[in-house]
Design goal:
The protein is mostly helical and 405 residues long. Helix content is 76%, strand content 0%.
């Protein structure tokens, strides 16, 4: 009997793939825990959610600015060397931030340390995808690998937040933040040691100099801009779903609805990795972005928690396809010498979108009420589809000849 998941089994026959993928899994834990952990830490110590949100936003924005710079270093010096230094700085500054909050240091120092810690966060998800890209010659196999990594992202977001919330509630407010940080740094050190599977550092010809903006090709700009809208949906969903559940008198069910949202993406991610869709990578990306825009409109009809759970699951089915399709398109066109940086910039769009979406959704909940505030993620999703459609004109023209490492 034919095993439908044989493509996953095939990619993991690559030597070292299981180790670097699992190490990347652990290293990505802070992606889902540092922001929430900082909110739980600051709110637990001060009782102010406004201050907690401002600190968490500082962390997120600093990561969006810093992670492409670390990725650029990986392309020039190798992932191993850069990950070690980034992880050491991340650990020291992250623990310093937690200590400053617990010891009630001046508030300005919280923001300074949060910004420095966030800026030291390397985008491990992009680094792992770069390893897959180097290890797999076949485009279908790379699609399977990217789909698997999207599933890993969803698992991290399903397991991480409730785990650190539990630690913060039952142990101490700093526990969730610190444990997530330690797990992530441990995974990053493990990944850094696996030098045999890291993409090689491309040699630069004498006299040749790559500008800081050369990696920002038209394709990358279109995908990152669409991902900015996608990230807005992610950030808005966290806020609006919690507000809606509280209005319905069952705040604990907010976690169920958000888990359904991530669960839909997990299911579609597994499927996307084994289904071979027709059309070019551009066609797939545009189609998946439009699907993402349409699927989220069901959230506008959420009048009860059971309907919200169902609508969130259906909307979630569109997440993994649009993320995998966009990453695959960028990977297919980016200069091999800037692979880590190119993949990281796509995630930067998501990060910025999450920050903005959470702020917009919070204001919408206060002004319109939780149910009407679902307009924010619905419009964000529609914008992603429209941006992809408009950008298709640019995407159908190759940026330039792809440079091999």
């Amino acid at each position: 009997m034919l095993n439908p998941f044989s493509p996953y089994a095939r990619i993991f026959t690559v030597p070292g793939s299981r180790a670097f993928s699992f190490a990347g899994w652990l290293a990505r834990v802070p992606m889902s825990t540092v922001g929430l952990g900082s909110v739980l830490l600051v709110a637990g110590e001060t009782g102010s959610y406004g201050l907690a949100g401002a600190v968490a936003g500082t962390l997120s924005l600093a990561f969006a600015v810093g992670s492409p710079q670390w990725a650029r270093g990986m392309d020039r010096l190798g992932q191993g060397r850069v990950l070690v230094w980034a992880s050491i700085a991340y650990l020291v500054l992250g623990l310093s931030f937690a200590s400053a909050v617990v010891l009630d240091a001046p508030r300005w120092s919280w923001f300074v340390l949060a910004a420095l810690a966030g800026a030291c966060g390397a985008n491990v998800g992009a680094a792992v995808r770069a390893r897959w890209s180097h290890a797999l010659d076949d485009a279908d196999d790379r699609q399977t690998a990217f789909a698997f990594e999207s599933v890993v992202d969803e698992v991290v977001f399903v397991v991480g937040p409730p785990s650190i919330t539990f630690l913060a509630a039952l142990v101490a407010p700093p526990a969730g933040f610190v444990v997530g940080l330690l797990v992530g740094v441990s995974g990053a050190f493990w990944l850094a040691r696996q030098e045999a599977t890291q993409p090689p550092v491309a040699e630069t010809a004498p006299g040749e100099r790559r500008s800081r903006t050369s990696v920002l090709s038209p394709t990358l700009v279109v995908v990152a801009t669409a991902y900015l809208a996608v990230g807005t949906v992610f950030g808005a969903m966290d806020v609006v779903v919690v507000g809606f559940a509280e209005v319905q008198g069952a705040p604990v069910l907010a976690g169920v609805a958000l888990a359904a949202y991530a669960g839909g993406s997990l299911v579609s991610g597994l499927a996307y990795g084994v289904v071979r869709l027709p059309g070019t990578l551009v066609t797939r990306f545009v189609a998946c972005a439009v699907f993402f825009g349409v699927a989220a409109q069901g959230l506008l009809l959420a009048g009860s928690l059971p309907w919200l759970v169902a609508a969130a699951f259906l909307a979630g089915l569109a997440i993994a396809p649009v993320l995998v399709a966009g990453m695959s398109l960028v990977e297919s066109r980016v200069d091999r010498r800037a692979l880590n940086e190119g993949l990281t910039w796509t995630s930067t769009g998501l990060t910025l979108g999450v920050t903005g979406g959470a702020a917009l959704a919070g204001a919408a909940v206060d002004a319109w009420g939780a149910q009407d505030a679902f307009l924010v993620p619905a419009l964000g999703a529609a914008a992603a589809g429209v941006l992809a459609l408009v950008g298709a004109v640019v995407l159908r023209r190759p940026d330039r000849e792809r440079v091999a490492a």
